[in-house]
Amino acid sequence: MMDPTAPTPQDEEESDYYGPAKYPARVLGEEEIKSIVQRELQDGLGGLGSQVSEERRMAIRMYYGRPLGNEIRDRSQVVMMDVLEVVEWTMPSLMRMFTGGMNIVRFKPNRPEDQQNADLASRYINYTFMNRMNGFQILYDWFKTALLEKNGIVKVYFKEERKPIVTSYTGLTEDELTELLDNDDVEPVSVDSHEEEIEGIGPVTLYDMTMREWKTTRGVAVDGIAPEEFISARRMIVLDDDSPFTAQRKKMTVSQLVSMGIDFDEIANLPNDDSPEYSQGRTERLSEDETYPVSTAERSDVASRELWVADCYIKLDEDGDGYSELRRILIVGEQSIHILIDEEYNQNPFCSITPVPMPHKFYGMSLADLVMDLQQIRSTILRQIMDHIYLSTNPRLAILEGQVELDDLLTVRPGGLVRQRSLGAIEPIQLPPLPREAFEALTYLEEVRANRTGIMAHGRELDASAINSTATGLAQLMAEKQQKIELIARIFANTGMKDLFRKMLREVVENATKEEQIEINGEWVTFNPNDWDTDMSLDIEVGLGAGQAIERLANLEKIEASQDRIVAGGGLGYLVKPEHIYNLSVRKAEAAGFKNPDLFFSNPENEEPPPEKPSIEEQQLKFDSIKAEAEMKHDQLSLELEMRRDSELVRHRAEDLAMKERVEMARIEMQERLGLGQQQAMIEQAEINAAGDDSEGEASE
Questions:
Q1: What would the pLDDT profile of 242-295 be if each residue is shown by its tens digit?
Q2: In the chain, what are the domain boundaries?
Q3: N- or C-end of the chain: fewer Cβ atoms within 10 A?
Q4: pLDDT tens digits for 551-563?
Q5: Distance between CA atoms of residues 523 and 581, nearest Å
Q6: What is the pTM of this model?
Q7: What is the Cβ-side half-sphere exposure of residue 65, based on CA atoms within 13 angstroms?
């Protein structure tokens, strides 16, 4: 077997050309890996004692309005809340922009034939993020962290956990019991048997069982990370797959580590390092929620024991091939490191946003950084104003020494007496009027704050010199006010949010094992991530704040009027298509505040197209054809009618002739019968006459 560290002929040639290699590539040992990771954790930005961590701690103090550190005893200690106001006034607009529409992300295919897969991927990622992960809360925490503490960080990864679920059954037959225990993921906790008399069968043995079934959950996950938990390499500029070192230091229980597939015996007795527990940011964030003194005793059950772990992602040439691969190294401890996972990884899972990016730096500036100095100055001025008011309502007193009972004077109570030996022994010290400049200074500093951040309280910017009486002037001012917030939204959309959804798509595609059916807006849709392209480009749907919703609706109505004119002029199908009308209707519904426009409109791409309407010439030809056909049918019917009438006439004439002939024949027959009867009667009469003559002759004889 070839030694992987042995030089190849190519290495020898390069060594001869460039001289002997000073740092030859080689396989790193475990101790070397531990040393490298430990050094990166200690030197990284955002860790214990760093300047970034201290600035974030101050921002949290300012947000909560905690003492500034320059307070004077028995003087006003009020603190203005500029940091809180700026952050809280920005959040509603940002959340409305990103979550007020139907979708957040839309993937675009690289080839025309991939359009359907891109649409399916868009629907799946949007549904998974907003419904399965509570995407609203993730975005809220992410945005607020960035506005307050420089950079907001989230982590995208594929989560696979194996957890036990305890279930109890009663009245099982032996076959049912065998079928349940035949599953490899089932462990019986207790099994009891008893006999029951069943009518028509007799005594039957039944079983009651409590079992532990191990369930495995799989799916993409997004976690918000507290800023003090994130550590990045010193001098890192961009957070991407080529970042030299990033890590998350967090608390995990032994049970959580076991659910990730780590052996219990490996971690049960590992030492724990509590130094991250007392980082500046964590202490400042949680100090008011905790009680002191804090008991540091560990839990007696090992599974609930908490360990500080560092989930590190580092570019490292561990195999000695000359290329630094991205590796995931999960460790426990800081002074004494124990490696739990060491594997090659496809992408850096962290995504970052910052409201004020700084060129050639990873950490930007937060809105808190822009106004913390103003909060301190405004707090100082307000304290002085409050001190003046306190002294005005409870002034200092000038007294004649020895003429006033000091005990009475120092005891302040309603209706209390102060004894003095002479009138005028007590006089209040008159204060000068409160200077108007103090209030003007507060107003000026508020304008400075607005210029820095674009955030103002309602109505403060509406002065007569800034706007005119027209709606256009007001709309222009509101648009100017929203510019900085819109810029922050665009920065968020085109940096961290694009990374977030691109990494979500990649994790879904690379770890999907089967098709999945999901009900979305009342429609069951089948998704097969294995058919999707991980390199699809994407767009983040950024909406508008409430101040511009009316303006957007007005502009959409103008577009709708233009579409109506084009359609009326016969432009439907090539200048204006059904999808254009659908897109306009969806945008109007979203601008009006409806998140689900599918309640009102159907996407024409999902419906069978109606038959095309014929042109005027085609309609005229069709009309002429129908008319000619009708005339032909009319002529045919007329001819048939005439022929039928003639045939009926001939038939009637023939019947008349036949009737006449029958009548004539009957008449002739009647006449013949009458003639024969007359002849017969004549014959009979003749015979009678002849017989009479014979009898008369015999008598005469």
A1: 999 999 999 888 888 888 888 888 888 887 766 666 665 666 677 666 554 455
A2: 25-35+157-349, 45-150+366-395+430-543, 614-701
A3: N
A4: 677 788 888 888 8
A5: 22
A6: 0.73
A7: 10
